[in-house]
Amino acid sequence: MPKHIIQMRLIICLIFLTFILSSCENSADNPKQTTEITEKESIAFRITWTDYSGRGEAIQKIVDTYNAKNDSQYEIDMISGNEALDEVEGVLQTPYQNTILALPYRYVRYFGENEALTDLTNAFEAEADLFYPELYKLGTVDDNVYGIPWVGHSICLIYNADLLKEAGIEPETITNLDTLTAALAKVEEKTNAIGIGLVGATHNDISWMINQFIYGFGSKLVDESGQKVAINNPNSVSAIEYYRDTLGMYAQDSWLNDSGVEVMNAFRNGDVAFEFQGVWGLTDIEQNGNPFEVGLITLDKIGLVSEVGPIMLALPNGMSEEVKAEGIKFIQYMISIDAQKMVMNGAYSPEHDKYYPFRVPTRIDMAESLIASNYEAYLPFIIGFEHPSIDVPVPKWQSVKEQYYEKGLHDVMTQAITIEAFLAEVERLGNDILKQE
Question: For 371-404, what is each residue's pLDDT tens digit?
Fold first, then answer.
């Protein structure tokens, strides 16, 4: 090999070696020059639906906006969940677990009373006025706040506008139960449809459905103390009689064994003219190609009190102070105007290549935002939050409902027992449960 080529290679090696040594020296003197990627700590957010569902994907987008803006050491990881009481209890019994919970209000009260949830009273004192007082109260036990309203629904009377037009009925004339009854009779007289879809099965739906009439007729489930059953009175008798005997005359033949699912099917098919449903009753028609025009009547206009089903955000009692602070910050974001607007973007339906709202925001001041976003049709489902019918007014009523109330109501509908005997039994059994420690 020629001598000048050997010398050139030697020079190149020396230059390269000098560069390497210089880099090592600079790194030692300036350790901050090395870039370190710190992985964020995960905090789970357990929703009441599967994460891969349309609803889960809609919520994931809201969570993603929080994570993108969040500069703390934590990241929120949304996970699938459900409303199974035992599974929620399992989560809460896990020591030192980091899970933010989305819970039905009745579970917030149940676990709040059992001291399994963090008291959020002071942390959200400034946000309390964002919600109707009766709605905010649903997340409390003995004036301590354990759940913050996030998304929800109230119930409206939904009608098939095409059938009403065919029957010559002006919806504005339906202003009380008498005019509703007259409208049902006219539907059956002038069209081939049945008046109204009702539920009567041994199911959760019959409980909240009948309670709208119980409250509307001036009764309630428990007294102000929450320790005594108050349903056994003539007003409750009249409420149940109207539902079973009057509305029942204009209901589908199978109503005694139907839940809300069957009612929705009948309404969608044009078999019934009216139904009591939440926001999903409206989106179900939209998702099925708008076979007919629909309209809404808020229940206060006909003398009933709307059932509400808010999903609330809560924190377990076993969180560290640092994680708890992050959880509070996340909840504050989820009830912000920006996040609440995103709720109305809805869940994606691949079948229709369109997004449909599945719940409505819970803040009072969302009305202007919904109108501006062309969601004005959903406003009636927020109005019901102001004066709600409460399916589980105190935590122990959940046991009354599961052990007797639902089945007893079904037995009343089928006339296996009298209304009076049912109410007396609820009072006896309910008082025994409410008195338990």
Answer: 666 677 888 888 888 889 999 998 889 899 989 9
Closest CA to 117 of 137, 143, 132, 139: 139
Work out the angle at residue 151's Cα, subtended by the Cα atoms of residues 158 and 112, and round it to the nearest 5 degrees. Answer: 120
CATH of the domain at 183: 3.40.190.10
The CA–CA distances, whole Å, from 303 to 37, 175, 217, 297, 300 equal 61, 8, 8, 11, 5
Residue 350 makes CB contacts below 8 A (sequence gap 6+) with none
Q: What is the largest CA-CA distance in the chain?
A: 117
Domain count, the chain: 2
Residues 313 and 242 in one domain: no
Residues 293 and 352 in one domain: no
Tokens found for residue 237:
């008798």
Residue 337 amino acid letter? I
Which amino acid, 97? Q
- Integer Cα distance of 100 and 327 in angstroms: 6
At a CB cut-off of 8 Å and minimum separation 6, what does 422 contact? 408, 409, 411, 412
From CA 94, how far away is CA 400, in angstroms rounded? Answer: 28
Q: How far apart are the first and last CA of the chain?
A: 99
Torsion, Cα of 310, 89, 226, 155 (10° steps): 20
| Domain carrying residue 161 | 156-307+396-434
Which residue is it, tokens 């009547």? 297
* Any domain includes 259: yes
Nearest alpha-carbon partner for 215 in 134, 141, 161, 271: 134
C-alpha to C-alpha distance for 27 and 358, rounded to whole angstroms: 55
Higher pLDDT, 18 or 344: 344
Q: Per residue in 166-178, pLDDT tens?
A: 999 999 999 999 9
Task: Could you list the beta-strand ranges (E) of 169-293.
Answer: 194-197, 272-277
Q: Is 200 among the domain residues? A: yes
